């Protein structure tokens, strides 16, 4: 029997509630499939660790993760610690340390979930946003000097490299090619950002020639927000830089009904290092400890993790159980207008997996 080594990093806030729920789901699906098993190792990194040791994770933390097959992550964020410290000290250290350069965010309208878009049907909203995850606007290059003085200056430098752009665009074209519609929208802002984004556009045209069966169009990031709202069915796979995709994917999650549902994967496509899977939401301290966090975003992330491990049947089974939960109003948490608890949703989804009930709803994770 195959044994997968999984690192769990709950992090902060509701991460500590949804990651254990995700771990329960993984144990349930492994038992039901009976062809693989998981070995979990939990890491208590995050805000509490920072209060004790002054760092979000240990210096040699990456070494403890290196031999894992995948990482399930919760969230990083703490009201007492500046956001840039929590973000760079944990999540980005792992993403950059393991060169997880493709951040993949599927967005679908799941059964039973209402989109804030009027008249939006399930078939109208089925996107995957690919976010460049290693450079761009979040390169980390910049500085701040003369703090507090009238001459204070600060800069964040956008860095796009040819290899960095080529590899993310190639990944996005390949993903688009694997989906039914074979359609990729390349998001840009080359009218205003006239160096890096012009190179981005040019490389997109070059890579497009390698994928003649993928139809490709270009959209300015500002126009893209309008298109997502007014013509959602015109989109399928989308690729954008780090900052642009960061913003667009939050909009996408909101259009699909709730931040609590959306998943994301930080992938090293070359599989040199473990990839990391996490719900898109943050630590949500306002609902922490109340037992009402929606675990669906984590469950969908688990489906992506299974798909990445090559366990496509198990991934489909998880998605089918997730769709059963979203289609059942009694299993809606507060963010979806219901009153179900994290425990109730987790128990119901695990039971659905155990009972092997066949999908009335199953769609594949990516397509
Ligand atoms: P961070 O600073 O870590 O990004 P945040 O609290 O500012 O976290 P989010 O956690 O992303 O932002 O979410 C904003 C709000 O959406 C939360 O305050 C919470 O009310 C709601 N929310 C987010 N995720 C969930 C969830 N899984 N279940 C229920 N509500 C959620």
Briefly summarize what is shown.
The chain is α/β, with parallel strands linked by helices and 367 residues long. Helix content is 39%, strand content 19%. The protein is globular.
Largest sheet: 10 strands, mixed
Our estimate of the beta-strand percent is 15-25%
Radius of gyration from the alpha-carbon trace, in angstroms? 20 Å
**Proportion of residues in helical segments:** 25-40%
Can you give a write-up of this model?
The structure is a single chain. With 367 residues, this protein is an alpha/beta fold. The protein contains 11 helices and 12 strands. The strands form 2 sheets. A 10-stranded mixed β-sheet has the order 2-1-3-12-11-4-5-10-8-9, with helices on both faces. It has a two-stranded antiparallel ribbon with strand order 6-7. The radius of gyration is 20 Å and the shape is globular.
Key terms:
alpha/beta, two-stranded antiparallel sheet, 11 helices, 10-stranded mixed beta sheet, binds adenosine-5'-triphosphate
Task: Summarize the helices and strands and which ones pair or pack.
Blueprint: E1 2-11, H1 15-33, E2 36-42, H2 47-53, H3 61-65, E3 70-75, H4 83-97, E4 102-108, E5 126-132, E6 142-145, E7 153-156, H5 162-178, E8 183-188, H6 196-208, E9 215-220, H7 221-230, E10 237-240, H8 242-255, E11 263-267, E12 275-279, H9 296-308, H10 312-326, H11 342-355
Parallel strand pairs: 1-2, 1-3, 3-12, 5-10, 8-9, 8-10
Antiparallel strand pairs: 4-5, 4-11, 6-7, 11-12
Adenosine-5'-triphosphate (ATP) binds at residues 14, 75, 77, 259-260, 281-287, 293-294, 297, 333, 335.
């Amino acid at each position: 029997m195959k044994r997968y080594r999984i690192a769990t990093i709950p992090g902060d806030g509701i991460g500590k509630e949804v990651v254990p729920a995700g771990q329960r789901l993984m144990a349930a699906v492994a038992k039901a499939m009976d062809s693989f098993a998981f070995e979990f190792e939990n890491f208590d990194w995050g805000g509490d660790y920072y209060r004790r040791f002054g760092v979000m994770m240990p210096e040699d933390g990456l070494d403890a993760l290196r031999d894992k097959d995948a990482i399930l992550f919760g969230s990083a964020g703490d009201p007492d610690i500046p956001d840039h410290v929590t973000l760079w000290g944990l999540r980005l250290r792992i993403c950059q340390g393991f060169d997880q350069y493709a951040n993949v965010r599927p967005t679908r309208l799941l059964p039973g979930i209402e989109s804030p878009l009027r008249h939006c049907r399930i078939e109208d909203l089925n996107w995957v946003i690919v976010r460049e995850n290693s450079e761009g606007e979040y390169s980390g290059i910049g500085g701040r000097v003369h703090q507090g003085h009238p001459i204070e200056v600060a800069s964040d430098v956008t860095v796009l490299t040819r290899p960095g752009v080529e590899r993310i665009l190639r990944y996005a074209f390949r993903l688009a090619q694997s989906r039914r519609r074979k359609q990729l929208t390349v998001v840009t802002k080359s009218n205003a950002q006239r160096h890096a984004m012009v190179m981005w556009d040019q490389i997109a045209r070059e890579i497009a020639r390698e994928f003649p069966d993928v139809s490709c169009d270009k959209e300015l990031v500002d126009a893209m927000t309008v298109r997502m709202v007014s013509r959602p069915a015109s989109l399928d796979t989308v690729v954008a830089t780090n900052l642009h995709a960061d913003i667009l994917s939050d909009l996408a999650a909101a259009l699909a009904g709730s931040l609590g549902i959306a998943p994301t994967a930080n992938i090293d496509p070359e599989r040199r290092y473990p990839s990391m899977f996490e719900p898109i939401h943050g630590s949500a301290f306002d609902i922490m400890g109340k037992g009402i966090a929606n675990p669906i975003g984590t469950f969908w992330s688990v489906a992506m993790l299974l798909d990445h491990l090559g366990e496509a049947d198990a991934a489909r089974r998880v998605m089918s159980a997730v769709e059963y939960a979203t289609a059942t109003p009694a299993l809606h948490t507060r963010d979806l207008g219901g009153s179900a608890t994290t425990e109730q949703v987790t128990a119901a989804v695990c039971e659905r997996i155990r009972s092997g009930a066949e999908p009335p709803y199953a769609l594949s994770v990516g397509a």
